Amino acid sequence: MILRKALIDDRDDINKISEVTWEGHDYLKNIFDKWINEKDSDFSVLEKDGKVIGTIKLTYLQNREYWLEGLRIHPDYQGRGYAKYLTKEYLKKIKNLDFDLVSMATFYTSKSVDIVKKYGFYLLNSLKIYRINEKKEINDIKNYEVVENYNDVMFILDSEQLKVRKGYFTFDWTAINASAELIKKLVDRKEVYVKKIEGKIVSLIILSKMYNKEGIMSISFIWGENHFDEALDFAISKYNDVYRPGSEFLYMCEDDEQLRNILVKKGFEEASKEKNDFVIYGVRSPEEIKNI
C-alpha cells in the first residue's frame, strides 16, 4: 500500500472511483485536471496492488487557512480502515504546519464526519443546501452592476447577514472565512454585483466560480434582505447564461422558513429535509489535533 502524489496517469482509476461515489454525482472526475495542476495544494492517491483505491487533498486557501477535501475510497475497499489511514496520514502533515484553521465540509450523513471527529475536528458551522439543475424562466431581472472598487463593499464584513453565517462565504462545496483579502480577490475576478438606488447600495450578491467543482458559478453570499427576491432572479439569470446539462447551481444558507419559501418559489430544491445538511468541521491549532 502506497500513499503518493497524484499523477496524470491516475485519471482512469480516479474516474472509476468518482463514478461509483455519491450515486455517480461525484465531482472528482470533473475537477481532476485542475487539481493535478494546482500549485497551492497537495493532492494524493492511495495505491494498492498497482491500483488507485483512494484520494485525498489539502489546499491552502488564505490567511493561514487550509481546506481538507477529496477524501474518497472505492466502494470495493471501504470498511477496511483506508479512509481513516488517509486522514491520519494527512493530519500528521497538517500538525506540522503553521495554521490558524484547517477545515472540511461534507453532507451531514457522510462517514467522513465520524472520522475527522475522532482526530479532534469539531463543528464550526452548518448550513442548508439548495440547488437548481435546470434553466428557470425569469421575467423581470433587475439591474445589478459589477463592483469595481472593493472599498465600496467592505461593509459586508460587519453585516448581520454574514454574522448569521458565522462569517463564511461558500463556493460550491468549499467554505471560506470572509476577509478583506478574499473580497479583494472576488472584486478583481468581477464576481461581486450590487444594485443601487440613488447611488446607494441596497443589495449585493457574490456569484463565483472560485473553487467550484463543476465549472459553474455558485451563490457565495447575498446581502440586503429587502431585495432577496431580486438578487435570486439576477443569480438565476446568470446561471441560465452558463448552464450546461448536468450542472448544479448551489446556494448554502442559514435555515430560515422565509428564505426557504422564497427559494422554493424560485425553483430551488432542498438537498434534504434535514435542517442543516452542509456541515463544516475543523481545528484552529495543531494542538487540537488528537489521536495521531
TrEMBL record:
<dbReference type="InterPro" id="IPR016181">
    <property type="entry name" value="Acyl_CoA_acyltransferase"/>
</dbReference>
<feature type="domain" description="N-acetyltransferase">
    <location>
        <begin position="1"/>
        <end position="145"/>
    </location>
</feature>
<protein>
    <submittedName>
        <fullName>N-acetylglutamate synthase, GNAT family</fullName>
    </submittedName>
</protein>
<keyword id="KW-0808">Transferase</keyword>
<dbReference type="Pfam" id="PF00583">
    <property type="entry name" value="Acetyltransf_1"/>
</dbReference>
<dbReference type="InterPro" id="IPR000182">
    <property type="entry name" value="GNAT_dom"/>
</dbReference>
<dbReference type="GO" id="GO:0016747">
    <property type="term" value="F:acyltransferase activity, transferring groups other than amino-acyl groups"/>
</dbReference>
